[in-house]
Amino acid sequence: HFHREIPEGLRQLPGPSSLPIIGNLLELGNKPYLSLTEMSKRYGDVFQIQLGMRPVVILSGYKTVKQALTKQGDDFAGRPDLYSFSFVNDGKSLAFSTDKAGVWRARRKLAYNALRSFSSLEGKLPEYSCLLEEHICKEADYLIKELQNVMTTEGKFDPFRYIVVSVANVICGMCFGRRYNHHDQELVGLVNLAEDFVKVAGSGNPADFIPALQYLPNKSMKKFVNINNRFNNFVQKIVSEHYATFDKDNIRDITDSLIDHCEDRKLDENSNIQMSDEKVVSIVNDLFGAGFDTISTALSWAVMYLVAYPEVEKQLFEEIKEKIGLDRSPVLSDRNNLPLLESFILELFRHSSYLPFTIPHCSTKDTSLNGYFIPKDTCVFINQWQINHDEELWKDPSLFIPDRFLNADGTEVNKLEGEKVLVFGLGKRRCIGEVIARNEVFLFLAIIIQKLHFYKLPGEPLDMTPEYGLTMKHKRHYLGVAMRPKDEQ
Ligand code: HEM
């Protein structure tokens, strides 16, 4: 790359000088979102570092990122071929693989349509507006019972351990038409290994950039390969059961609808995208994987913030009590009516920025940005954390202040402010689960805040330092939770 001639009128990318072999890996450190935010102050919105053998372009600043991912979306819509990504979904991942534009676009559309139709489908019971709402309300009830049990027997609980099972069940319901109980060893074991996955899949993992490291013993990489295998086996078993019981006249869930699509495709002479059945059906791996870790991490952080800011928890409860009352459970259509809760969720996304970088992108052709030349096949990191903490966009960005998103009289969310929070990416690769995710985070929270009060346990200090990864998690923690007293209810 360094020897490529820069086309006339374009400039060479700025950036720090680098060491042989490792490049700038040491400067990246174990909190790359912080070190790269610092570097952006020095080198600007578009700069280049060297990670091992590879040059990597780092994008910061809302305007620059928006320009790259939306206006020049096709130029930046690729994924780099990283070693760790080759293990995800057996190399056939929709989100992580290097599928070329045509195949990726066709798969993305299939995934998007399947998600949309199965979340908005009518629920089985008339009291729910859609299947998504039905799954969430039922899982929230199970969760509340489970938390009461564990408080009775152990007097404390680990929020991620329980939330992840509830959230996994919602997406399991849509993808596979089934749920698991909170003590099912297979599911609980699998979803509680999410940390092992996200640590290695985070941007800037040395093994992805220094090929020699792939041949040395590497504990976290071993765990990563292992969890991917377990995950694929888990889904594969369910998919086989679906093939065995498939009935074209009774499409039960997303897996069935993908199998059905393969059948239809064989009859369609005009279908011009060549794709194996496996590439179609394995889309369900991505939906299940992306659908449980991201949302459970959000909710687990939410509970931590509720405990860290008890006065905020109180205001949120008061809002629900006043707007919904305590006689019925919240539903999705209450979302527009709870501006405090909406602001809390926005501030949680912004302040934690627990998805600090999007999944890495890759340039699909020679291009340029802000006057700098970027050659084809360059790996690109998008620093969402920087945007969410940019002092030019936010007042006191390091403080947790949900009210910053409310209008002057506190009755409505300021939509424009809310749109500045970047957690789902932008443009062509933007998250396809965003609508579901925002609804699900809202409804789970509304239900548990209405019924439960969370608190810090004596002798258990709250440590809110995130552990770096694709999604950043708080350390495993014990908290207390109680049903709200009957006179409140
Ligand atoms: C991609 C965030 C929930 C499915 C992404 C990306 C981000 C993201 C940052 C990468 C964007 C990029 O590379 O530029 C989130 C957050 C969630 C969430 C914060 C929850 C709060 C979900 C859910 C689903 C989902 C519930 C599906 C059930 C996907 C898929 C992709 C993706 C399939 C890959 C898209 C592609 O590569 O074209 N998400 N997501 N996500 N997300 Fe989500």
UniProtKB/TrEMBL annotation:
<keyword id="KW-0479">Metal-binding</keyword>
<dbReference type="InterPro" id="IPR017972">
    <property type="entry name" value="Cyt_P450_CS"/>
</dbReference>
<keyword id="KW-0503">Monooxygenase</keyword>
<keyword id="KW-0256">Endoplasmic reticulum</keyword>
<dbReference type="InterPro" id="IPR008066">
    <property type="entry name" value="Cyt_P450_E_grp-I_CYP1"/>
</dbReference>
<comment type="similarity">
    <text>Belongs to the cytochrome P450 family.</text>
</comment>
<dbReference type="InterPro" id="IPR036396">
    <property type="entry name" value="Cyt_P450_sf"/>
</dbReference>
<keyword id="KW-1133">Transmembrane helix</keyword>
<dbReference type="InterPro" id="IPR001128">
    <property type="entry name" value="Cyt_P450"/>
</dbReference>
<keyword id="KW-0492">Microsome</keyword>
<protein>
    <recommendedName>
        <fullName>Cytochrome P450 1A</fullName>
        <ecNumber>1.14.14.1</ecNumber>
    </recommendedName>
</protein>
<keyword id="KW-0812">Transmembrane</keyword>
<keyword id="KW-0349">Heme</keyword>
<keyword id="KW-0560">Oxidoreductase</keyword>
<dbReference type="InterPro" id="IPR002401">
    <property type="entry name" value="Cyt_P450_E_grp-I"/>
</dbReference>
<keyword id="KW-0408">Iron</keyword>
<comment type="function">
    <text>Cytochromes P450 are a group of heme-thiolate monooxygenases. They oxidize a variety of structurally unrelated compounds, including steroids, fatty acids, and xenobiotics.</text>
</comment>
<dbReference type="Pfam" id="PF00067">
    <property type="entry name" value="p450"/>
</dbReference>
<keyword id="KW-0472">Membrane</keyword>
